Amino acid sequence: MWNNAVVSMWNNAVVSMWNHAVVSMWNHAVVSMWNHAVVSMSEEYAVNWRQRS
User: Fold this and answer.
1) How far is the CA of 5 from the CAs of 19, 26, 36, in angstroms?
2) E strands, the chain, where?
């Protein structure tokens, strides 16, 4: 009985820690990818704009 409680508490802690780590890693990856895409697009746009004018 006691062991079950401890084990399930431990499992919950590990699972939520893991989920949190995965989610924040994923968010970080998505955000930096997005930032990178936006920055390169803006740079290309600026270069094209300068060449045109």
Assistant:
1) 21, 31, 46
2) none
Q: What tens digit of pLDDT does each residue of 13-22 get?
A: 999 999 999 9
Helices H, strands E: what count in the chain? Answer: 1, 0
The structural domain count of the chain equals: 1
Q: What is the pTM of this model?
A: 0.52
Task: Identify the domain containing residue 52 by its residue range.
Answer: 23-53
Cα angle 53, 39, 27; round to 5: 160
Residue of 37, 15, 26, 5 whose CA lies nearest to 45: 37
